[in-house]
């Protein structure tokens, strides 16, 4: 099986990064994506349930007719900036590839929706049609595929909320083209999974939301999640700067997690970095009080 996987990967052709609309392209599994999955902490094994649902849907789509069970392979991840939506999506892509076998070599394509937008009439629509009708179709024909649509509201914006000053006809057509492309991929290629993220779910066209098999709102970390994120970050710093080891004491982590209420994962990790910029500007000399003070300030700034 490993030799077969390597052979499939060797024969799979990926689009060049820099092709219009392509922000990233790589084969799966991917070690850096695996690390990303491990760095995200959800309450009550929500990550495990998310993976189980996506894997189950892939198997259902491969065997049950679309007309009877219209699964589109679309997962929508929402939440405020900094909670880890993109990180979750990349990690989930890796986990899917490690879990679902028998379909061939998995690939990952990240779409840059901003690169598809244009002020010229009709150009956005043509770019979207090229992306879905040729590039993603060709990739899906080669084997299973995970597509990441980050900030999906940029591409699939709510058509009912468009301003007449924003070239609404072209945006309408581009959204229509994207929806048609998603439908074609869903019906022709059950091994295609689309992971979409958004900070502003209210700005997404309802036609996309109705196509989503699963909509997950990623919350800010709970007390246990905050503690785990701080511990994960501090451990990485302490591996390079052993003087930071005292911050890993249970009492310190408990107190820091309490002070960090309301902070998202990104702010928590940055708090550790800010604490290291103490009066000595030396991570080796960071103290629990440096961390507490940083978290208090960040909490007040919210």
Automatic annotation (TrEMBL):
PROSITE patterns: AAA. Residues 71-222 form the AAA+ ATPase domain. Belongs to the AAA ATPase family. GO terms for cellular component: chromosome. Keywords: ATP-binding, Nucleotide-binding. This is AAA family ATPase. InterPro entries: AAA+_ATPase, ATPase_AAA_core, ATPase_AAA_CS, P-loop_NTPase, Pch2-like. It comes from Actinomadura soli. It comes from the Bacteria. One of its GO terms (molecular function) is ATP hydrolysis activity. Pfam families: AAA.
